[in-house]
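Help! Submission page says 'invalid entity' but I think these are all valid:
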Amino acid sequence: MSATPASNWVDGNGGVFVAGIGLHPYQFPSETPYTVLGLTAVRAALADAGLAWPQVQSAYVGTTSIGMAAGRVMFQHLGSTGLAVTQVENASASGSFAFRQACMEIALGISDVVLAMGVDKHGDGRRAANKDGLERLSDTATIPAVKFAMMARRYLRERGSGMEAMAEVAVKNHGNAALNPFAQFRKPRTLEQVLASPKVVGDLTVQQCCPRGEGAAAVLLVSGHALRRLGLEPRRCVRVRASSANSERNDQNDGEGAVELVRASAQAALAQAGIAATDLDLLELHDAFSVEELLYSEAVGVCAPGEGAASLQRGDSRIGGRCAINASGGLIGMGHPLGPTGIGQIAEITRQLRGEATGRQHPNARWGMAHMIGLGSVAIAHVLSAGQP
Amino acid sequence: MTSPDLTTLSPQKPSLYRLAADGHTLDFLFAQCPGCKGLTFPANAPGCMHCGQALEHAERIARPGGGTLLEYVTLHAALVPGMTAPRIAGDIRIADKVVEEGVIGVTDEAQLAQGMQLRAVAVPLASGEHYGCQFVPVQEARP
């Protein structure tokens, strides 16, 4: 472990701590109003933190498909306290960027108690890339599944692995999700079931792809000064050690852009936190498609380059292994309702670092990274640690 | 059955391609950046894809459509409305540092290989008014 950097912006105002977490289970599209989803998560986070709504000074809401001004429509049912409300959208990483904004507001000393949440209903998937006025040779050119299926072909070919290596990611993550009461999928899957599920594109089958869905997740952040002033339980407050964000550089290197994007953001976050990738006990990452977990585990550095599939086979990334990857079930198993997903990652890592992940606890968890990517592409990484503030 | 006269049809995506002189293959339309001289596709993109310079006054250049096949997969399900499945999509390097996804006009991946040269050909569409673009192995790009 390298020395802590002399100056880390996230240490401002006494540091940034996750004091409360709450979720509405991720689920298939339903008639449930988004306000019910969101308020369930926020009320759970308030109760978990031992805080009251009037104490929250600012709120960031990550969402992609609900429409304008989702925050106040929802928060008025908690009380119109006059807090600042900001809506954040960055595709799959919306919740993660809402979290980052909340961290900045606390570290800068603007506020001491901030809500970061994500809430989403399944939408029509409209995206700016289809409104840029430019025609494309293929009508699937903006479909991520096609891009990742091609990356999967290349990955498996270069590492001499069969499609089973990729499908094992889905087996692990469905198994983890089966232990997570907030997950959209609650049944373990065998390798045979995963491979036999309908083919989507290339070697990707349905059970190797994240589902459509809805849900909500919320975390309450406090400054280190507020933690003491409010008399919160220090052992249940997880510290934010790093927040790093970037976007893809010009990708003309035959598909390496996404991997480099992940590598750069993860390395920046690790450097900010003053740790090495091998110090991570937990990693929640963007496994919308199974191959991504193999690619990004290498890019983050929790396994050696080229060792993603082998590391999984050895059990390194299982709960109880060297570094549990997607202990929540990941996007494949827990679900990917978009807005909430990044917040859900933070909630899972917080739960694990507290030692409260009943039934799926990764032992001796001290350091965790939540990593997300979004259409564009953009990437964001947060590092959290357990221990006394 | 004789092939339709493609010269009587219009391009489905006129900003991207036009019928070549042989009446069967396609020419792609690029913009050449006045700054870095790189080619940008499509030609009406608002900025050079290599250096970001505005392209309002860039020279438009037509080159034979096609390139090197880098990767390909079969789309087993209709991923967008109106798409027929199965269909093969591929990433093709159509110019130096310009990689685009295209529709591959073969029915079996066994007919393809990484690194093979593809040619863009005009394919009459069901509307009867337009032709679209598919990529086929160079040796098959003859009317």
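Support: the input was valid. A stray whitespace character was the problem, and the output above is from the cleaned input. Chain B has one domain: 13-140.
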